[in-house]
Automatic annotation (TrEMBL):
<dbReference type="Pfam" id="PF01266">
    <property type="entry name" value="DAO"/>
</dbReference>
<dbReference type="GO" id="GO:0005737">
    <property type="term" value="C:cytoplasm"/>
</dbReference>
<keyword id="KW-0479">Metal-binding</keyword>
<dbReference type="InterPro" id="IPR036922">
    <property type="entry name" value="Rieske_2Fe-2S_sf"/>
</dbReference>
<keyword id="KW-0411">Iron-sulfur</keyword>
<dbReference type="GO" id="GO:0046872">
    <property type="term" value="F:metal ion binding"/>
</dbReference>
<dbReference type="Pfam" id="PF00355">
    <property type="entry name" value="Rieske"/>
</dbReference>
<dbReference type="GO" id="GO:0004497">
    <property type="term" value="F:monooxygenase activity"/>
</dbReference>
<protein>
    <submittedName>
        <fullName>FAD-dependent oxidoreductase</fullName>
    </submittedName>
</protein>
<feature type="domain" description="Rieske">
    <location>
        <begin position="447"/>
        <end position="501"/>
    </location>
</feature>
<dbReference type="GO" id="GO:0016705">
    <property type="term" value="F:oxidoreductase activity, acting on paired donors, with incorporation or reduction of molecular oxygen"/>
</dbReference>
<keyword id="KW-0408">Iron</keyword>
<dbReference type="GO" id="GO:0051537">
    <property type="term" value="F:2 iron, 2 sulfur cluster binding"/>
</dbReference>
<keyword id="KW-0001">2Fe-2S</keyword>
<dbReference type="InterPro" id="IPR006076">
    <property type="entry name" value="FAD-dep_OxRdtase"/>
</dbReference>
<dbReference type="InterPro" id="IPR017941">
    <property type="entry name" value="Rieske_2Fe-2S"/>
</dbReference>
<dbReference type="InterPro" id="IPR036188">
    <property type="entry name" value="FAD/NAD-bd_sf"/>
</dbReference>
Amino acid sequence: MTSLWLADRANHPSAPSPLLEAEREADVVVVGAGITGLVTAVLLARAGKNVLVLEAHSAGAGATGNTTAKISLLQGTKLSKIVAKHGAKRATQYLEGNREGQQWLISHCEARGISVQREDAYTYAQSESGVPSARAELEACEAAGLDAEWVDEADVPFPFHGGVRLPQQAQFDPMPFLDSLIVELDERGGRLVEGVRVQKVSGEDGRLTLNVRTAEADEFDVYAEQCVLATGIPILDRGGFFARLKPNRSYCMAYRVPGDITSGMYISTDSPTRSVRYAPTADGQRLIVGGAGHPVGHAKTPSSSVQELDAWAKMHYPGAMQTHYWSAQDYSPIDELPYVGPILPGNDNIFVATGFDKWGMTNGTAAALALSSRILGGRMDWAEAFASWSPHELSGIPKAMLMNAEVGLYLARGWITPVTRTLSRSPEEGGVVSGPPWRLEGRAVVDGVEHRVSPVCPHLGGIVNWNDSDEAWECPLHGSRFAPDGKLLEGPATRDLTPAQ
């Protein structure tokens, strides 16, 4: 399972050398080498800061390398949700931040010869039931000052019952963009170290200690004055962001299609969500179709929704041949606005950037602009809409209560349900958790190889479920994900699942 963007990385800059003991100190340590982390690092390095970026996997291996990579200010029904909860003023601030992020990203690409396709963006209704949501998004665009328009028709082969159109948005392959940031970071004296996972951060009075573990299980400490957690969801529990975000998994497929491919970028208002764009490649254009989303660890058989998405693409694009399949994880905030700023009120040592709700290309860049400005002593007027701590969060309390009640339900269910299964139950293919609470075991068979792990998530003790589409263990509480053998893939957890006893 490799995304179209990550499939051919032969020209990726070589991995930096291991971090020597004398190099384990910096002004700012950025954790995470996706779009938010690397843009933040480059902006700080341009200002003369000594910057170190630590990445558990490789640059872009998380959401950035598994996105649809739409650089759009029209973001599905996002603005109408913000207006409904916070009013037009806050929505305008959110829009301004995204606009500045979009402009910075596109200008950077143009200056370095990185290909960007300018296309119109559409938020559309697949059926009559989706029209009111699309109309509400148009009204929100008008209230926030975004010059969008209503269109009744579009040149597409799938059902289109009208929608919002915003001209001259953008799309790209995000990996050349990340490569350019890595090169500039190195030129400005910054450092990127891949294959090292930050497990904890301590100390908050002028000097931080980050405990780091390598892929070879070696551990050491790194020291910094400030730290930015650009890890999708913060890996530190202080601030309780894991309880203020809902992790969602969504899926993408790329196709080789005979004849012309739809121009423009489309996302539906009504379910099941359908996201469509094209991508130029060295051997012709590809169609990219996304959707089939679900809360992480909650879907019984994600593969059925993915198969439905595949069938939809092949029905509307006859002769389409799938070339790539991938998935990504995104985090939805309880109050619809991102969390960018101190991990705790008044803490200017540790910063977070999360809650981009599937629109990380513009939001991630905006977050980097806001964070770097704050660290350097400046401020962005629109950053109020991105504040990690703000009174506007009160609007999200009902949703947070519901969401965390659901977490409690899944916690209890995870410990009780396996009792109904025999301890020896093992699937012919896939994964299952079984056994009494004092001896739970997760068994997964992938490509004929059996893996046996403790199914207890090391974050907060949730019991993982099996994702039959991604072939991974997923915690339904806060979205930590693990490979069949228990190796940590992503989420708030910082350790692998333990082997079964």
